[in-house]
């Protein structure tokens, strides 16, 4: 009798543990399913206006896709989309910038010549340390970062408020954290000045 009761207890406990694990697994999958696919082309409406909700959803989806990557070859393939206008990750002036925690641009979807540049202390036309604001992003939700863009820097009334969204993610390839930014269309060619007195280390695909 005692053996029978003990056996039933073990079976019941096993089922509870298994069922609980199944619930956790299901919840994990549902979290991934809750990140809808929003591509770069969906950010701009028919009126040519950027929809902020769509911009936020775009960078959230893109970061979730990068965070899933475990294979280097897959990573290289998705990087190609990052640079290709007309892909899911790049449409005209809507593109992605990936920044390392140290303030170095890892990948710039619009201007790849800016890759490897340290921009942590760069400011916009109003003195805002834009990149430091972006690096405050967490993994929970994309944060909004506004900056000022001037068509004529000499005209202080010519400021156009621009909006970007930033979110943090962790790469499974190298276990490093990055901040992904969407909507940052300021002319970085003029904003970022190369640091010539620093020997930049060689960067290979295995380091991101």
What does this structure look like?
- The protein has 208 residues and is α+β, with helices and mostly antiparallel strands.
- The protein contains five helices and five strands, in the order H-H-H-E-E-H-E-E-E-H.
- It has helices spanning 2-33, 52-68, 72-83, 130-134, 188-191; strands spanning 96-100, 105-108, 143-150, 159-170, 177-182.
- A five-stranded antiparallel sheet has the order 2-1-5-4-3.
- Residues 2-33, 186-201 and 203-207 have low confidence and may be disordered.
Highest-level CATH class: Alpha Beta
- N-end to C-end Cα span: 60 Å
Whole-angstrom Rg: 22 Å
Strand order of the largest sheet: 2-1-5-4-3
Keywords:
208 residues; alpha+beta; Beta-Lactamase; five-stranded antiparallel β-sheet; 5 helices; 5 strands; disordered N terminus; disordered C terminus
Describe the SSE topology.
Elements (H helix, E strand, L loop, with lengths): L1 H32 L18 H17 L3 H12 L12 E5 L4 E4 L21 H5 L8 E8 L8 E12 L6 E6 L5 H4 L17
Antiparallel strand pairs: 1-2, 1-5, 3-4, 4-5
